[in-house]
């Protein structure tokens, strides 16, 4: 147990307790603070929501049987709030029936602890969930970074692709959903010539088909529109 305490000694984690039982709330708050957690408390769902407008904790510990709005209803409110819906939560309640647990897990609780419970169990569950959150956040960060690098590479590749005014004009028509026949009529060249230009554009942009070409062209849409008036032949 000493090892666990040393792990928590420098923690900067904020836990929010939501329970209408004042004595339990106070004792649990005192215990968590002794383990160096920052603790927020609320004796009702409404008070909790008011606090959450200003502060977002790292994890919520929620009772289910509360007056006015139950813990289930409180979590539904959280889930419907874009700013709060990602906060992990644990149900800590006297409702221990199987159907209660199932309902809790369906709402997305990370754990379901029944009263009475050992505070050390709660500490272990909190630590386990925070560790999972850290891993999830690391994965998200890596994924975001990969996407960012891909976008940089993609944009650099696009920057080095040069288009003639005619190619830009044809790209704009493709974005607007025009067929080769429509394009030929609008810019007054033969359909075969349009087909040649489209083939050249597919090669230049490394697009597999017309759909990919449209996706590529959208990224240049503003630039292409600025050059759409220039229809000078090569």
TrEMBL record:
Keywords: Chloroplast, Phosphoprotein, Plastid
SMART domains: HTH_LUXR, REC
GO terms, molecular function: phosphorelay sensor kinase activity
Pfam families (UniProt xref): GerE, Response_reg
Keyword flag Glycoprotein: no
UniProt modified residues of type 4-aspartylphosphate: 63
Domain HTH luxR-type positions: 156-221
Extent of the signal sequence: none
Domain Response regulatory: 14-130
Top-level taxon of origin: Eukaryota
GO biological process, any: regulation of DNA-templated transcription
PANTHER family from the UniProt entry: HYBRID SIGNAL TRANSDUCTION HISTIDINE KINASE C, TWO-COMPONENT HISTIDINE KINASE
Protein name: TctD-like protein
């Amino acid at each position: 147990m000493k090892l666990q305490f040393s792990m928590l000694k420098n923690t900067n984690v904020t836990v929010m307790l939501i329970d209408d039982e004042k004595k339990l709330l106070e004792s649990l708050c005192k215990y968590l603070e002794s383990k160096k957690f920052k603790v927020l408390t609320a004796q009702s769902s409404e008070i909790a929501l008011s606090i959450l407008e200003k502060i977002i904790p790292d994890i919520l510990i929620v009772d289910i049987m509360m007056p006015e709005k139950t813990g289930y209803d409180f979590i539904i409110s959280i889930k419907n709030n874009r700013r709060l819906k990602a906060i992990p939560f644990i149900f800590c309640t006297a409702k221990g029936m199987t159907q209660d647990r199932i309902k809790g897990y369906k709402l997305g609780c990370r754990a379901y602890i029944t009263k009475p419970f050992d505070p050390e169990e709660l500490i272990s569950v909190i630590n386990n969930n925070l560790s999972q959150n850290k891993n999830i956040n690391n994965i998200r960060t890596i994924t975001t970074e990969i996407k960012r690098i891909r976008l940089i590479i993609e944009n650099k590749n696009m920057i080095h692709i040069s288009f003639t005014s005619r190619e830009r004009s044809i790209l704009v028509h493709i974005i607007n959903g025009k067929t080769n026949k429509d394009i030929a009529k609008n810019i007054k060249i033969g359909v075969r010539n349009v087909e040649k230009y489209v083939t050249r554009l597919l090669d230049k942009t490394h697009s597999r088909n017309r759909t990919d070409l449209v996706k590529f062209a959208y990224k240049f849409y503003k630039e292409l529109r600025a050059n759409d008036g220039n229809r000078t032949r090569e």
